[in-house]
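Here is an idea for our session: we take a single protein and study its fold together. Start from the sequence, derive the backbone structure tokens from it, and show both lines together. Once you have written the record down, we can walk along the chain together:
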Amino acid sequence: MPIYRIPDDLVFPPVSHAEPSGILGIGGDLSAERLLLAYESGIFPWFSDDEPVLWWAPDPRFVLFPAKLKVSKSMKQILKKGMFQISYDQAFEEVIQACAQIYRPGQRGTWITDEMKEAYAHLHQLGLAHSVEVYQEGELVGGLYGVSLGNCFFGESMFSKVSNASKTGFISLVRELEQRKFCLIDCQVHTGHLESLGAEMIPRNDFMEFLHDSAKRKSIQGNWGELFSK
């Protein structure tokens, strides 16, 4: 199948037209309107600094159902000890900057470009992109960020400067979202780290059905630090 050139109009081709690699289209911008349409349509951007915007819709899709979260015995002990402190939406730009700077084996540079940072900072200002911060002795040592629409959370990236920091933040988020009846967390593409926490592959068609149902739900918009403390 061809890789579609995304027009200036706010439109995407069906996800069924994606290449076997998952690439669906090339071009377009990262406006809030386009990003939200992408997530609602089962599509996400992922590209390097020296590339045009690339849009992806892989099949199968890597997701985590909150009720299927796996927490190991050793991780339960770490959580019980209270080694880390968690907050939400208190340092969004610091988290996304840390995600961009963290070293990842086998990866040259970062896909979190300045354009991406600005785009997600805008979504954060709209109350639709959120961050989880993990602190240890007052220092930001881990975290993650993503987009929330309906009762789906679309994870974008995470970082950890000390062992188990990002896991702690992720587990905290999953538990919060389960309480609020979220149906799934989109992890996009496979990682062993998230698989160990219960994430799994599902057919893209099943993923799209979840998105369809999620679109009927009202998004939990606003500062989650304030909302989750109530």
